[in-house]
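May I ask for a sample protein chain and its fold as tokens?
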Amino acid sequence: MQSQFTPTKANLIKARENLSFSRGGYALLDKKRTVLIREAMTLVDRANEIQKKVKNQFEDAYSTLEIANITLGVNTVSDVAMSIPKQEEFQILHRSVMGVEIPMVIYEKDENKNPNYSFFRTNSALDNAVNTLENLKYLVYELAEIENAVYLISLEIKKTVKRANALEKIQIPRYEETVKYISEVLEEKEREDFFRLKKVKSKKQENS
């Protein structure tokens, strides 16, 4: 690194500016890393909570669905299931977390939604299974959003850590070494110039 810089005052100023810029960049990356890690940990905790809810609701849904299959018959339950239209009442928007674009699943939950099938060949077990799976759908939306966010943030954390380490362990020490080297060379040169000037003055005084 030293060989790339001629020990001049201009290069010393430039090296100091680069050092200051690198330290500032490291401070920003370190802050970004801290915020992203905190955000990821919060999301992971939330994902674990939702996964437990999803597991419980799946168990409840399959339990009531099993009762419906026994009481109504598998063919009847299958026919009702096929008659329910596929619905995707959601939008994908984005939010930014320290420059990371995180997709958000936006939906409006309809609490008073009427069934899409006739009550004529069905029973309460099937109704419960349908309602449970309907509510489960919203949990899956939320879980998908959170798990995707954790994945994207994790990738950004790795990139940020790599850049921060490069600055901390390579770039900053190099500029510190360069500033030290140029400063020492210039100081030595100033001392030599000072003694040289002192000798010249001394000779002039002797001659006079």
